[in-house]
Amino acid sequence: QVQLQESGPGLVKPSQTLSLTCTVSGGSISSGGYYWSWIRQHPGKGLEWIGYIYYSGSTYYNPSLKSRVTISVDTSKNQFSLKLSSVTAADTAVYYCATMIPRSHLDYWGQGTLVTVSS
Amino acid sequence: EIVLTQSPGTLSLSPGERATLSCRASQSVSSSYLAWYQQKPGQAPRLLIYGASSRATGIPDRFSGSGSGTDFTLTISRLEPEDFAVYYCQQYGSSPTFGQGTKVEIK
Which helix (H) or strand (E) is B79 found in, with range? Predict the structure, then answer.
């Protein structure tokens, strides 16, 4: 069974870049079969898809965030990463990494990590 | 972008009652691309249903999904205490989106 664990700073200053990493265990990113995804949830709100990456490096980004988002993969470390630039308080959220069956559903999720944007 | 609208926003029911949750899409969604999740406070969402009607591994058979086109339904036949939570639908059309959620609370 695939397990996912998010890591990264819990506090980021406005205008800086939010950087998170998702470490995958119980499966190999390079084996294919999944899109490796990032989703966020603002406090007390619903879920928002940020984007996903395939092991080959092809990506999809939410159009509303596309200009600020970069998702990358490091197959040697079995990790994938999220960078969100020029953050504001509106980017304060719990960030989840998850596996997505291509063009379908999300089956495995990390526990989530709260990132607060504040000076 | 396909917008998913869930109703009602909150459903107040008692254990043992039947829960019917609706998810309506702004455009037709292939049934293969409609999923439902359950989320409890402080936890990540958990996959319940995919392909509109297929239960995920380990999901009790009191949970069922149905629908096609623009109208989809999640039914919980008899609510157990652990079923009180927030439920989200999700689609993968041209780009993936979630509904805003339905909270099932204890009456």
Answer: none
